[in-house]
Structures are given as C-alpha cells and as structure tokens.
Amino acid sequence: MSRRDKIVVAIDGFSSCGKSTLARELAKQLHYVFIDSGAMYRGITLYAIRNGCVHGSELDRGKLIQQLGDIHLSFKLNPETQKPELHLNGENVEKEIRTPEVAAQVSQVATIKEVRTKLVDQQREMGKNGGVVMDGRDIGSVVFPNAELKLFITAEIETRVQRRYLELQDKGLEVEKDEVRANLLERDRIDSTRKESPLIQTEDAVVIDNTNMTRSEQLELALELVEKKIVTLA
Ligand code: DC
Question: Ligand 1: which of 41, 132, 135 to mutate, judged by most atoms within 8 Å of the beta carbon?
C-alpha cells in the first residue's frame, strides 16, 4: 500500500471532548495505529509525582527536566481489549495515569518545552510512515502540520463535565461534579494559553461539535471525511 493510502489523521481539541474515543474507533475501522498523545504527557507526570518532582501543588520543573533522559514511554497492545496501553520504563501504567492526581498536574508538565520536544520527536517517529490516528492538543499544529486530515473536536462544557464525571465514576473514583468542572476549565485555560505549542484550531482543520452527536454518528462523519480525503489524494 502506498504512503498516500495510509494517511495521518490529526485530532485536536479540549479535554474530555471524546477525542481519544473517536481516534481509537477510527483507527480500528481503518486498520491504522491509534496514538493517544495525552497518555504520554500523563506518563511523564506520573513519573514526576513518583520521583519527588511534585510537592503539594508545586512542580519542580528543573528536577523533572534533569530526569527526562530516564523516562522511557511505549505503547503495547492489550491482547484482551485490543487497546494500546502506556508503559513507563517497562511498567504498564494505563490505570495510574488516569487518576485525578495526575490530571491535576499534567497541564503544568505539558507547558515544559523540554518535555514537549522529547514527546513530539517520539510522536513524529511513530507516525512517519502514515497510517496513524493521533489525538492531542498540538497534533495538527506542531507534530504533523502536514497531516492529510485534521479534525478539531469541540463540545459544550456541561456535556464534557458529565462525560468525564461518568468516566471517573465508572472507574470507582469518587469525585464531585464541581471538582471535575474546575479541573477541566483550568486545563482548558492552561492548554490554550501556554507559551509552548498552545491548543489552537488550525485553519485547515474540520471542526466537529459533538455535543448533540452519538459516538457512532461522529465516527461515521469522521470516516466519510477520511474516505473523501483519500479519494482526493489518489
Ligand atoms: O488528552 P488528555 O486529557 O489525556 O491530555 C492530558 C494533558 O496533556 C492535557 O491537559 C494537555 C496535555 N497534552 C498536550 O499538551 N499536548 C498533547 N498533544 C496532548 C496532551
């Protein structure tokens, strides 16, 4: 199969807009590789918490930068669920990176230039042959500015709060809705105002507001967009 048949799909948007769900389902349908770039920022955050770089709500940026060379991240497919799971220095940390403690720090960690450079290099390597669906905040703007298809996903804030709340409850984590809302709004603020690669909607991105869409409607729309794009490239 030629490079053009296997395109790069870049999916960006705010937290809890359903980007990863869409990216995973789209990759499955297309037989592409799915890469959840947020998981990688979460992996570095977990390392920082475990290795004395976080004191209360304070992040010791210098200490984390010094240790970046010791952090090795990789994705391995879970044969049961067929979902890729993040490994940090060989340990499966898929569950540990989804806790509120990691969520509370991750946007701060993602503002560090050295962290971004390390992860962007690895992400480019993973997508260099095409055939990937990658979701995050800077995929269409920085990681793959030449991606053949860019999607920008949005949804109303209360819809996002409800989705994240249910997701956390599903995992047995007790949280208040107000706490979830505050965390999402704070992450939106940091992600879109930071100096290094802020979340932006690129001009060539197709915007999908999924507030009133089902998961399958959204998937169908994305699949149509991919098919159209592949036809125009043929
Ligand atoms: O998608 P997520 O909620 O798992 O992302 C976690 C954090 O990582 C989010 O607050 C912003 C950051 N992030 C980023 O800066 N760039 C990316 N490509 C992906 C995530």
Answer: 41
Task: Give the chain's domain count.
Answer: 1
Q: What is the pLDDT of residues 47-106, one digit of tens each?
A: 999 999 999 989 999 999 999 999 999 999 999 988 899 999 999 999 999 998 999 999
Compute the residue count for the chain.
234
Cα first-last separation, the chain: 12
d(CA 2, CA 157): 41
Ligand 1, from 45, 106, 189: best to mutate by most atoms within 8 Å of Cβ? Answer: 106
The residues lining ligand 1, judged by C-beta closer than 6 Å to any ligand atom, are: 15, 37-38, 41-42, 106-107, 110, 136-139, 187, 191
Domain that holds residue 139: 3-233
Contact 106, 42 (CB under 8 A): yes
Residue 53 is part of a domain; what is its CATH number? 3.40.50.300
